[in-house]
Design brief:
Blueprint lengths: L19 H9 L15 H11 L10 H8 L3 H14 L2 E4 L4 E4 L1 H14 L1 H16 L2 E8 L2 E8 L14 E3 L4 H9 L2 H15 L3 H18 L2 E4 L6 E10 L4 E10 L5 H27 L1
Antiparallel strand pairs: 1-2, 3-4, 3-8, 4-5, 6-7, 7-8
Protein name: Helix-turn-helix domain-containing protein
GO molecular function, one term: DNA-binding transcription factor activity
Pfam families: HTH_IclR, IclR_C
């Protein structure tokens, strides 16, 4: 069941309507709070706009300004100005009957262009599908987004779905095999910076999580893959390995997983872990040739 990446062409569309409240808020709201980023080259308004786009999860068809404000921590008047601008540019679409927004074509085109130009899915999918068929497990490729991993491609075995996860699904970096493998593949400086971000995110839970991450990094150093048995989800277990591209400037991660009741730690470590490591090495070599 081979799939190839598809590029969605940019089609000129009439701008969607924007709510009257957005126009009022845009007039009333002042500029963003000063000092939000100490780096003078950092454009806070742009970062906040991207935060709004990231706030849409795989199951969020529509979100309003109030929900976007709650999810991002951005003040509602500022959210209103940003959604107005993103709507005018085609990255959001305003649905008058719901008084909410959905992602627009502009946002989708960016994602599809990345996948199409990188060649990642075209190269990875046949290899991933072959391993899924051979093991009866789900195989997935993911990229990071803050403290989560986002699935780019998911291949299922024959028969009933083992894990009902699709492209766009999110897993926590710190407690999933695919996230731990991504951390393991990072250059040391980037990993240290990411650990600081994760500590800020998990707060009081961090000491316990950090201990497990340290153990995962040691395990990776010995065997080249990471595992997580019934951690981020008590019903799911998996093994994963990093895919390092562009001399380390880009790191993805690939995992193999399924029901925790079937995939014991022994199976993960003796069978599936080495197989996903081999898959990552093969994929990494092919992608280097594509980009070389």
């Amino acid at each position: 069941m081979k799939r190839t990446a598809t590029v969605i062409p940019v089609v000129a569309e009439p701008p969607s309507p924007v709510p009257a409240s957005a126009l009022r808020d845009a007039a009333d709201a002042g500029p963003g709070s000063p000092g939000e980023a100490e780096d003078r080259s950092f454009v806070t308004a742009l970062a906040r706009g991207l935060d709004l786009l990231r706030a849409f999860g795989p199951h969020d068809d529509y979100l309003g300004n109030a929900e976007l404000s709650r999810r991002t921590g951005i003040p509602r008047p500022t959210v209103s100005r940003l959604t107005y601008t993103l709507t005018r540019l085609g990255y959001l679409v305003y649905v008058e009957s719901l008084e909410k927004y959905r992602l627009g074509q502009g946002a989708m085109v960016l994602g599809h262009r990345y996948l199409a130009t990188s060649g990642i899915r075209e190269v990875a999918q046949p290899l991933m599908q072959s391993l899924a068929f051979a093991t009866g497990c789900t195989v997935a490729l993911a990229t990071p987004d803050r403290h989560e991993m986002v699935y780019l491609e998911v291949c299922q075995p024959r028969g009933a779905l083992v894990m009902r996860l699709t492209p766009g699904s999110r897993l926590p970096i710190a407690t999933s095999a695919i996230g731990r493998a991504w951390l393991a593949g990072l250059p040391a400086a980037r990993r240290a910076s990411m650990l600081v971000e994760l500590e800020r995110h998990y707060q009081t839970r961090w000491p316990t999580i950090r201990g497990k991450l340290d153990r995962a990094m040691r395990d990776y150093g010995r065997r080249g893959f990471c595992v997580a048995h019934a951690e981020w989800d008590r019903t799911v277990s998996g093994a994963a390995a990093p895919v390092v591209l562009e001399g380390g400037t880009e790191v993805l991660s690939i995992n193999i997983g399924g029901a925790a009741s079937r995939l014991t730690p022994e199976i993960l470590e003796a069978n599936l872990g080495p197989r996903v490591r081999q898959l990552a090495e093969s994929l990494q070599g092919r992608l280097w040739r594509v980009h070389g």
